């Protein structure tokens, strides 16, 4: 389930350092892999990490963050991040990750950082499963630090059925069952918003979530985003534009969830 990442006030945040790939691209005009770097403002919110955090945490100064769609090749990193973030009874299982990253990977997004083998971030729990970002940087690793995992559903809110998966998903042809991803649905059900505990409180959750929301706004594939939150996280998601839709009927993880909804308005004219 989406986790409390305690993003800081935007006015206290500084811009993130552009990755080496972005710097090369800017100089040459060449579109390199993983070029989408988070270093811009959006609706008054400056994506970044606080100056005080950069002083306090050496690992943050070595982050060269970018977002990209998650795939099945990121499975082990996604599981390591989930296990490091959530209590056991709220974690996504390996089989669910495999299902979601196979059936609808375009609905999941990761925040990665290019990491040197001897850098502070090499001790992160996801580093072990990292891969080189491209063939030009074989000694570096693309390390997952935050993620959004989602499917589509036909209901307007997240349901227990939408959080499950068909047991025969590997062999069946039809995607019309009530359990799991429903391609015809107009609701994107966000099952996990997570950032590594090492960076909690530094705004990485908002960074990846705002990037995700921008992508869905322009994609035209859904009318709304839906997620579940505990009471103490309502204000956090309201600050991102979600609204409290009342107590959820979902019993996953012991229940006691609140439905949070975000209405997708679509791209602005001329965008």
Structure, explained:
The protein has 271 residues and is α+β, with helices and mostly antiparallel strands. The chain has eight helices and eleven strands. The chain has helices spanning 20-28, 51-56, 58-61, 75-85, 94-103, 160-163, 204-219, 234-238, and strands spanning 13-15, 41-42, 45-46, 48-50, 65-69, 109-115, 141-153, 187-195, 224-229, 243-247, 258-263. The strands form three sheets. It has a seven-stranded mixed sheet. It is globular, with a radius of gyration of 18 Å. The two termini are 32 Å apart.
Descriptive labels:
alpha+beta, 11 strands, 7-stranded mixed β-sheet, two-stranded antiparallel sheet, 23% strand
Largest sheet: 7 strands, mixed
Q: What general form does the structure show?
A: globular
Low-confidence segments, ≥5 residues, pLDDT <50? 3-56
Strands across the major sheet, in which order?
Answer: 5-6-7-8-9-11-10
**DSSP E strands, number:** 11
Q: Structural class of the helices, strands and pairings?
A: alpha+beta
**Helix and strand element order:** EHEEEHHEHHEEHEHEHEE
Helix content: 10-25%
Specify Rg, calculated over alpha carbons: 18 Å
Count of runs of 4 or more consecutive helical residues: 8
Portion in beta strands: 15-25%
Termini distance? Answer: 32 Å
The chain-level mean pLDDT equals 79
